[in-house]
Backbone:
């Protein structure tokens, strides 16, 4: 099978809750045919329409991201491509023409109709690969996710969003959290990056990425998602970071594992008479009932570091080759004029 370093899969959906069954074989084929970076480019009018009311589409987007990331990541892990960069980007929402900026793109995989929708935008040197759904895909196509639009008595979007973590060797669990955080924001997103000095006891700490590299990768990923926000990635030296010094924040996004930490943040803010933060928790279920939180454990940064150490010992990787490809998101952020702070 021919291998491409950078591939994309256009996916057209009428709604965020539409069935993805027809696209599954395309995604798996693209993963098997790609060595470094794969972007799933989702074109969904409903996502663009909810830009000013993202809270109403929270559950649908959670499940959509979970399904796409779990399918692609499980396949990449099955073929031992642990460091493959897999991104989900929303076409028409991100704020730029991806095909113009993806200068290193080599191949596009997709259903015939999906490729037809973007053919005029694809450079002539990029190979087009039509993939047909399997009989199993066709059989499950009618299975539509039954998630009704949420109602909200609170804000429909937030000006100032915050989250935090290590974000070492950025993986699917991180990317779902970051995407959902950026989804809620109207003005800016702050991602607190835990300093390496606090992580020395972590498993595989010897191959942990330095904080400046982790911050750079997070910012690059976020700028690939959308261009209309300001992103900040300050280094933090305690569990609270800027949430206990800056009253502007309105909402914090976390996982079930970090929910207690989110509550602790509000306790700290209360001591300073700051307003408490609304808390949003990512909780996405894939079609196989694989909980993304459980999946995130299986693809944790610690496990990735353990895999890297083993590959270094086997002579497959050199100590300098264990990070994701340097070009993973930079080609998608070329010419970026937005404000970012690391």
Residues:
């Amino acid at each position: 099978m021919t291998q491409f370093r950078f591939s994309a899969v256009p996916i057209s959906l009428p709604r965020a809750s539409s069935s993805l069954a027809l696209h599954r074989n395309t995604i798996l084929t693209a993963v098997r045919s790609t060595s470094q970076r794969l972007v799933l480019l989702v074109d969904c009018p409903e996502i663009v329409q909810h830009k000013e009311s993202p809270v109403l589409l929270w559950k649908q987007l959670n499940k959509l991201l979970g399904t796409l990331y779990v399918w692609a990541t499980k396949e990449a892990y099955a073929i031992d491509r642990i460091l493959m960069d897999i991104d989900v980007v929303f076409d028409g929402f991100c704020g730029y023409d991806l095909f113009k900026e993806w200068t290193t793109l080599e191949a596009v995989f997709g259903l015939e109709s999906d490729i037809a929708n973007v053919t005029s935008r694809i450079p002539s040197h990029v190979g087009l690969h039509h993939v047909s759904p399997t009989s199993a895909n066709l059989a499950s196509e009618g299975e539509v996710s039954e998630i009704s639009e949420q109602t909200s008595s609170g804000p429909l979007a937030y000006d100032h969003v915050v989250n935090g973590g290590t974000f070492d060797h950025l993986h699917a669990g991180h990317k779902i959290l970051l995407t959902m955080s950026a989804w809620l924001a109207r003005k800016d997103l702050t991602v607190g990056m835990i300093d390496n000095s606090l992580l020395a006891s972590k498993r595989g700490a010897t191959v942990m990425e330095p904080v400046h590299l982790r911050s750079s990768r997070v910012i690059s990923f976020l700028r690939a998602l959308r261009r209309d926000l300001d992103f900040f990635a300050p280094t933090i030296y305690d569990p609270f970071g800027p949430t206990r010094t800056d009253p502007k924040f309105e909402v914090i996004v976390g996982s079930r594992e970090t929910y207690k930490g989110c509550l602790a943040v509000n306790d700290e803010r209360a001591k300073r008479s700051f307003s408490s933060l609304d808390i949003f928790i990512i909780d996405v279920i894939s079609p196989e009932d694989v909980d993304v939180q459980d999946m995130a454990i299986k693809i944790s940064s610690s496990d990735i570091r353990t895999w890297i150490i083993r590959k270094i010992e086997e002579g497959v990787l050199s100590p300098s080759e264990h990070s994701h490809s340097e070009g993973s998101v930079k080609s998608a952020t070329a010419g970026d004029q937005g404000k970012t702070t690391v």
